[in-house]
Amino acid sequence: MMQENARLLENEPKGDTENEETISIMEKSEDIDSNVDYFSFQNFGLFIHAVLVGLVSNDYSGGIQYALFLIYLDQTGKFNSVASALLYIPGSIKVLFAAVNDSMPILGYRRKPYMILGWIGNFIVCAIVVLAPFPKSRYVIENRNATNNCSYLYHSKINSPEHRGTELEYTLYSFLYLAAMLSMTTFTTITGTAMDGLMVQYARKENESQRGKIQSFVYAMRTIGSTTNLLVTAIGFNWYVYAGPWCYGITVQTFYMINAIASIIAIPIVIFMTSEDPVKTSPKFTNIVDKIWFALQSKAMQRILLFSFLMNTAQSLASPADSMIMKYWAQTDNFTLNMSNVLGQILMFVGTSIFGSSLFVNPYDSTLLLFQLVNN
Q1: Who's near 74: CB < 8 A, 6+ residues apart?
Q2: What is the sign, positive or negative, of the torsion defined by CA atoms of 358, 359, 362, 367?
Q3: What pLDDT digit, counting tens, does each position of 183-200 carry?
Q4: Which residues pair with 140 in a beta bridge?
Q5: Which of 12, 17, 305, 366 has the most CB atoms around its CB within 10 Å?
Q6: Cα angle 37, 215, 353; round to 5
Q7: Which residues of 251-264 are buried (b: 16+ CB within 10 A; e: fewer)?
Q8: What is the DSSP string of 195-235?
Q9: What is the pLDDT of residues 334-346, one digit of tens each?
């Protein structure tokens, strides 16, 4: 019997070597090296990169979208809802960006070139927004009480064409800025996905007992960037030009100039302060997609997807009238709108920093669960 089994094994087909490469990339760990110094000059750039990704990745959520579309350009709630839905699309197809990273290395590298390309694209979009002409507000700002106190400024909609652009012009500007935000979101997703892949490569070099620390630290750094972004939008766009109570603030061009500077800073950080081992071979894109499809057949993965779908559905339940209620009935300003998001980001940072290496079995997943329960 043993001889018969040996004979069958010898005659068994060897399979596709490229498919085996796909399996090795997605399932096997790299050589463990617990002595890797992640805070060295060659590796610390990953954490700085995470901060910068967080800094530019939230430009479409909350303040800037509310201030620009609903206040300054006076768009409808339907437009704002459609804009929000479109801006979620790049993040929904991150798995395809990851498959491109794995299957199409550039100059032998899977992560760093895509990180750089994402930042270059971000800079180009931001530069176009900064240099492009900016429309006049659809509101006239009057000081009816003849006082220097900005709280007495009155906003009224301008209906005379000689004082503002036509309806078509404002609609065109709205779609152009939406296209810019969508482009930025796509480029940020590209560089963020490559960063996540590189983070996983770093994490696989840790000892089994230390697994999760690198992920927790990277996402804590990203949370710092996101929180900074939300604070900039909360404070910067809370002045009277955007129907806020304050006397001074920033413009949309200034906001995108900050993002452009962050994009330029990120490029040399990726080149000189982020290490990545080159690869000699890579799997085909179709093989990776096949493996993803195979993974989706498992009940465990289906439960994860169902949970993510239901959670995001519950979080995203909204009506086009919601933004109109905030604008006209509640008269919500940018500071109030964004501070709740800032609180959520702070909870995320505290969770990943304090509980990231000690909570339950999988520190990062359990920290995310804790954050979702508290934040919601």
Answers
A1: 138, 139, 157, 170
A2: negative
A3: 999 999 999 999 999 998
A4: 156
A5: 366
A6: 95
A7: bbeebbbbbbebbe
A8: HHHHHHHHHTTS-GGGTTHHHHHHHHHHHHHHHHHHHHHHH
A9: 788 888 778 877 8
